[in-house]
Queue: 2 jobs
Job 1
Amino acid sequence: MSEKIVITTLAERPELFDPLAEFKGGWPVFMQQDPVGGALMGRVRELFPEHVLLATEGDELVAIGRSIPFVFPDEDRTELPTSGWDRALIWGAADHRKGRTPTVASALEISVRASHLGQGLSHTMLATMRANVRSMGLKTLYAPVRPNGKQDPRQPMAEYLEQVRDDGLPVDPWLRVHVKAGGKILRTAETSMVMAGSLAEWREWTGLPFDRTGEVIVPKALVPVHCDLDHNYAVYVEPNVWVRHDL
């Protein structure tokens, strides 16, 4: 990683509020259609600037990281939700609105500019996120991790999680980063994100024909997209993996 890269928070660098909105991470177009994310992800920089990490090299923003604080567990939140990423956003926004004092945080995103991939920056961003959350007095950082090394969309996520290398670490590179950083894999979040749209929308998002009912394999999707030609819609339900970092 370049020595010139400096990591701060948006609270410390409010002048980067607008450049942050323009930052292009590695999210495929169809992954940007989650309605919960569309409604709330942009609010994270407004409501929780101290939870937004910014890696800059000179004047260039080269990586970002976002987490969100919330209360967990409580009488209504006894288990980590299957609707992982979406629910973390909902809980965080709701607790902020109600003025509740958070007890944990969840990672939402670590994105590195393509020009800076392969330099260990994602490892550094995760370590910085852990330290940042700990500095706010929170003892646990959860993460609904997207195992983007999963190559077979038809393979169940629970089965993929069982695959480990000879050294016992996960075969998935991003899960491996979390485990090496001290994270513990807990369980799958089967309905972590949900993207639904008309067939015309899916054609626009992916460039695929979506011309038959059934499973459609979309590049970078972790599981198949379900296409219903008769009813003119397709839906993608993404599974993630809950990881816990004790800080």
Job 2
Amino acid sequence: MRILIVTDAWSPQVNGVVRTLNALIGELRAKGHDVRTIDPGGRASWPMPFYSEITLTGTSVAQMTAEIAAIAPDALHIATEGPLGWTARRVCLREGLRFTTGFHTRFAEYAAARLPIPGVLSLGWQVLRQFHRPSQAVMVPTKSIGAELDRRGFENVRIWTRGVDRSLFRPYARDHLDLPRPIILYAGRLAIEKSIDDFIALKMPGTKVLAGDGPERARLQKLAPEAHFLGFLHGEDYARTLAAADVMVFPSLTDTFGLVMLEAMACGTPVAAYNAPSPLDVVEDGVTGAIANTLEEAVTRALTLNRAMVCEASMHFSWKTCADLFESWLVPCGRLPTRGHTGLFTRILPR
């Protein structure tokens, strides 16, 4: 099957959406599918308003139509609600093509955190609901997020879980960080919606380490000069850092999944998180981590867990399962009609 994925999130961006799509595409190609992307590569881009760490990329309806026509997909998935996603959606509706969508990011909450004025949150959800309304399957990463979208009036919600690369994320010798223990790690973007202030405010013995970067770094460094800020880490350096930590703290209340939780657990490092959607679906309380109403309680309990059991109990998450689920929710997108009068097409595209 020829599968087209339209995405505004793409390398060199560093985030969970990009990592998910790269892993998904690799698995789909291993299954024999021809996977193509329409992505920001080679296009002019600009910073997203109120969210400058993400860049936006636009294209015209005519250009998007021509690109879809050239690819002639059997199935079409719109991964993000950015300009490319909206343009692809418009083309699909105009041409009568069926498509699926992905819900990766709670942009309504992110916008409200950056622009705290009345109505922003409800408007954000209204826009997201409008974007996904024509979708044949709105793919969400957890049951909790799916239930929330159901409550908010989204239709055709389908669960599409995530995975982890176990050739990279695995238990290593725990000597990668030579710091006083316990090592309490935060991994991810340093952004306001991640609730990192709660991590910084922890009153615990040991050493706080932050692996990641973002617009909040300078402020957080002033707030916690004793903490170790490592910046973005990649590959084995990142995996060994996860494995060296005694606990990985996930303070976010807005993430839709949190791949870092799976990656830490695969390395044997337990996760400490709030009693909130996503951790509730990813962390097995008392086995792979601890969930509580306060991070202090979660960290204290997580530090007592058996690291071998943490790794073993996380094994049911895999990128193969992720790809199988994604494939199962795809729908035939249909044919683009001949549009000779516009000069865009001169033939009916083959199936």
